[in-house]
């Protein structure tokens, strides 16, 4: 792994040929077909100007409002040219008086990981960090706790579905100092929102799992360094058509959810070399959800970063920038055909070469996904890790400090975040386990949560998020608690909540999903409700769930969920169970 590096790639000059080119495409749901692609369509739609990438004038007709905001002022200048210093000195009244500064606060600051909560917390921001592979330290956790503590009831933190921290309550005037503090503990929030690459996801048990295929940490660290320019900013990848997700798979459990990422690296050997087969195009959106498809490509481990750069450049150069609902990378793959898209990636590889997929896939197809809660032995003799349940991912400053203390006192000062919004404390001496599990924090953050709580995930909801239609976190806990009182379930059932169709809570991968909407009660009055999804699967036989029932009032959910659990998941009503015991 020491030979891996993160070079900055630049695409070869665009072809000057004109006319039509025929490529073999592999549509998602049908056999390969011929797709005709006009050569002019393969001209890059962006160009580099003064160190930043901008949409060419001739491709600006019909672009969406967000693209116009980017053209009006380069968002990265707020960081790379320290524009945040001047912006942070303005009052919100002064900011709102100008369209330029209002767009700075509501749109461009997302390039710095700052999201203005205009609707529900006017003048306050959510800040999203970058934590490659979900790995963080006690020192970093304490610093984040110190930031949110000063904001009182407005300050809290969430573990996200991309192994990441989001902190809440931030005020603009504090941002320059917070950014310096983040850098001081080796963290960054840069390029974590809007049309950027999101946090690289990997195996939360990387390096400690006795069953792991490959340690994903080095790859994700390199990807993050490459994408963010070592946290200094990398404008080559800050003007994508839409957001973009990447993961590296390291376990048979597929904790990383490869099928919902724009780029997923699947471990595979080829002729004795370690490397990865490649999936592309997975995504969720309000109007469409699609599973990632094989690119018919394999890269040796040293080409993980170059391939990522080539895929990003193809997407940046050729992706559409009109209707935001049709700008994710899979739409480009559909347009060019899978082979046509692959050809554009090949053009942007350092040697314009890309091997075909390897048949030597290392992920076992028949594998029961393991539970990481509680105490488990590591591959290192005499050490264990402890999986901690964080109900719907929400923590307060004092709890973060306590997690940091436990990691430091019992382990090596390291914490791991998971995509299910939980935390793992690794590297604990077995002789210290008995004392650790008795710590008071685990009265709230259980090591052995109730079976229906184990797979419970919830997005931010309308407590803080302006796009959410319903409240999610408290409601998810309440509904699950009430359901648990009515049925007994013999196996985990993953239930995900999301406040709106943007599906940050990833309801389509859940066994049972709840997507916020407005519904009508028995009196035809509008009330908060959900569309219920059923049948999502993760793992090698992954499948996105389908709508089971639309517009269910939230107050009517408990009996419906009970019925679903009994009919589809073998649950037993507690009344019947008690009768049988008698």
Automatic annotation (TrEMBL):
PROSITE patterns: NIR_SIR. It holds the Pfam family NIR_SIR_ferr. Gene3D superfamilies: 3.90.480.20, Sulfite Reductase Hemoprotein, domain 1. It catalyses: 6 oxidized [2Fe-2S]-[ferredoxin] + NH4(+) + 2 H2O = nitrite + 6 reduced [2Fe-2S]-[ferredoxin] + 8 H(+). Residues 194-351, 456-569 form the Nitrite/sulphite reductase 4Fe-4S domain. Signal peptide: none annotated. InterPro entries: NIR_SIR_4Fe-4S, NiRdtase/SiRdtase_haem-b_fer, Nit/Sulf_reduc_fer-like_dom_sf, NO2/SO3_Rdtase_4Fe4S_dom, NO2/SO3_Rdtase_4Fe4S_sf, NO2/SO3_Rdtase_FeS/sirohaem_BS. The keyword Ligase does not apply. Keywords: 4Fe-4S, Heme, Iron, Iron-sulfur, Metal-binding, Nitrate assimilation, Oxidoreductase. The gene is LOC111430906. Its cofactor is siroheme; [4Fe-4S] cluster. Coiled coil: none annotated. Residues 118-183, 376-440 form the Nitrite/Sulfite reductase ferredoxin-like domain. This is Ferredoxin--nitrite reductase, chloroplastic. It comes from Cucurbita moschata (Winter crookneck squash). Pathway: Nitrogen metabolism; nitrate reduction (assimilation). PANTHER family: FERREDOXIN--NITRITE REDUCTASE, CHLOROPLASTIC. Belongs to the nitrite and sulfite reductase 4Fe-4S domain family. One of its GO terms (biological process) is nitrate assimilation. Its EC number is 1.7.7.1.
